[in-house]
Specification:
261 residues, alpha/beta, Rossmann fold, seven-stranded parallel sheet, 8 helices, 7 strands, 45% helix, oxidoreductase activity, NAD(P)-bd_dom_sf
Length: 261
């Protein structure tokens, strides 16, 4: 029943207008391909125009819309263009991300700026562009792609992890503020997914999933109207439980995960 769901349930994608930002590869690209196959109109955005064109190649309902998510004016211009083409946007999926495994003593100022602006600031730029129209319509949905790395301070995620923790916090307050206005807010927390970002890791990644499996899990969660869509379930439940341990236990366990320099 709809009343038992925290959000609207997305079961029929026919004709729906979905904008995926950060869709030139990985989860975003796979989600775009899957939604196109289900009958949605899908716009894909990112900095790599050739990769975007490949995602929607041969798809009359697909639209490649190159932009830099780190530039506020790009969000406004792209949203205006979509509204002229589609009249309105039903769902915006925030997938843009940067990641490089770093320990605290390896922090680089430029790397930190670029990662925070891509993973976090770009979401604020996008919300500033799309929410006013959704508020007028009293409808629409936003999907934030965070990570289980935002649950707690994991090794190698010195910059990436805090940006994802911020997105988790942001999704919660967005839901509280926007739900009364008919706007859906969905938080996606994947575990390890095989993408160009996780290819940087030089350690064994437990419960590593394909992008196809990740896209299927996201669509399953959207169909159920869930607020948090976390997968794979066993891994994400274990991480959530670890994050709720008292600091005396949690920090000791985290230290065991760390490798000495």
């Amino acid at each position: 029943m709809q009343g038992l769901s925290l959000n609207p349930r997305w079961t029929d994608w026919t004709g729906k207008r979905v904008w995926i930002v950060g869709a030139s590869s990985g989860i975003g690209a796979e989600l775009a391909r899957t939604l196109l196959a289900r009958g949605a109109n899908v716009a894909v955005s990112g900095r790599r125009a050739d990769a975007l064109a490949a995602v929607v190649e041969g798809q009359p309902r697909g639209l490649a819309l190159p932009m830099d998510a780190r530039v506020p004016a790009d969000w406004v211009a792209s949203h205006d263009a979509l509204c002229k083409t589609w009249d309105a946007v039903d769902m915006v999926v925030f997938c843009a991300a940067e990641y490089r495994p770093l320990r605290p003593w390896e922090i680089d100022a430029e790397e930190a700026r670029r990662t925070v602006e891509t993973n976090l600031c770009s979401v604020y730029y996008g919300l500033a562009a799309v929410l006013p129209a959704m508020m007028v319509r009293q409808g629409g949905s936003v999907v934030l792609l965070a990570s289980v790395a935002g649950y707690l301070g994991l090794p190698n995620a010195t910059i990436y992890g805090p940006t994802k923790a911020a997105l988790i916090n942001l999704a919660e307050l967005l839901y509280a503020e926007l739900h009364p206005h008919g706007i859906g807010v969905y938080l996606v927390n994947p575990g390890f997914v095989k993408t160009r970002l996780t290819a940087h890791n030089d350690f064994a990644m437990p419960a590593l999933q394909t992008t196809e499996a990740a896209a299927a899990s996201i669509l399953s969660g959207l169909a159920r109207g869930r607020f948090e869509i976390a997968f794979p379930s066993r891994f994400t439940v274990a991480m959530r439980l670890l994050s709720r341990l008292p600091y005396r236990l949690r920090l000791r366990l985290l230290q065991r995960l760390m490798k000495t320099p």
